[in-house]
Amino acid sequence: MNLCTQKLLAAKSIVVLTGAGVSAESGVPTFRDAQTGLWERFRPEELATPAAFQDNPKLVWDWYTWRRELVSRAQPNLAHKALASMERVAPHFRLITQNVDDLHFRAGSQSILELHGSITRIRCSVCNLIEPEFDSNSSPPTCPRCSNYLRPDVVWFGESLSETVLSAAYEACSQADVFISIGTSTMVQPAASLPFMAKQYGAFTIEINPDDTPFSIAADVCLRQKAAAVLPALVSQTWT
Ligand code: OAD
Q1: Sign of the C-alpha dihedral computed for residues 84, 86, 92 and 98 taken in this order
Q2: Strand, helix or coil at 208?
Q3: What is the mean pLDDT of each successive set of 10 residues along the chain, which is 240 residues long?
Q4: Could you tell me the CA-to-CA distances from 72 to 40, 41, 103, 141, 234 in Å, in that order?
Q5: Which of 80, 86, 185, 210 stands the most exposed, by the fewest C-beta atoms within 10 Å?
């Protein structure tokens, strides 16, 4: 039995943080990977800030519509499915994701802390009405309650994360016996502080990422493979 398996079996609480790398094998582009990353091709300040939406709501809405359609065509991969299985067999399991796609949900994960919101949810940019009926031919459509523009329910640069979601994530990290950071460059705060926090509170930490990140040096184990290759094996070795 290897060290990761031993630690996972002994853990009373397992916490997983995922980033865009988990969905890469479903064909959803990451943000910072050279050549394929979204921020290599697009400028975040023109597309993912409140000011960008104010300056050019149509551009921002259309870009998110393109991403929403891309996500809706994608299917959960073996990494999403392995994490859903882990939730079913592991004693106390929390999944924290920075991803705004709904692939964890579609793979069967039940309890997900979505730090950056969800691209599949729409809300009013002013009154915050969630999932209103809207005219998909308008760009952007307007709120049926207050007539202001609708927007994706995601966290943009310069915006705060939901306090409820963030405190639940902090609490989970402070109680984790094993913390697994998967497919994230660990560059965007406050999500990037979570692996370090878990480590500080005594968790055994595992990083799954083909590349080095700022957390690699602190992680107890780094598995330098793709998430969809390593996670199914980790789950089947541990729980069957
Ligand atoms: P990044 O694009 O910054 O990082 C993706 C990470 O996944 C990189 O470290 C890759 O090496 C790794 N990776 C790529 N393919 C992988 C695979 N098959 N298996 C495992 N790892 C793989 O994405 P995030 O860290 O998620 O924020 O980015 C964090 C935030 O920055 C996003 O949530 C988004 C973005 O701006 C908002 O939209 C608010």
Answers
A1: negative
A2: strand
A3: 92 98 97 88 91 95 95 98 97 96 97 96 96 88 96 97 98 98 97 98 98 98 97 94
A4: 22, 21, 9, 20, 28
A5: 210
3-state secondary structure of 66: helix
State both tokens at 34.
Answer: 């050279």
Q: If DSSP codes are grouped into helix, strand and coil, which group holds residue 32?
A: coil
Q: Which residue lies with its CA nearest to atom 13 of ligand 1?
A: 21
Q: What six digits make up the tokens of 61?
A: 């809405």
Residues in contact with ligand 1 by the CB-under-6-Å rule are 19-21, 24-25, 30-33, 37, 48, 98, 116, 155, 183-185, 187-188, 208-211, 213, 226-227
pTM of the prediction?
0.97
* 92 in catalytic set: no
The dihedrals phi and psi of 107, each to the nearest 5 degrees, come to -80, -10
CA of 31 to the centre of ligand 1 (A): 6
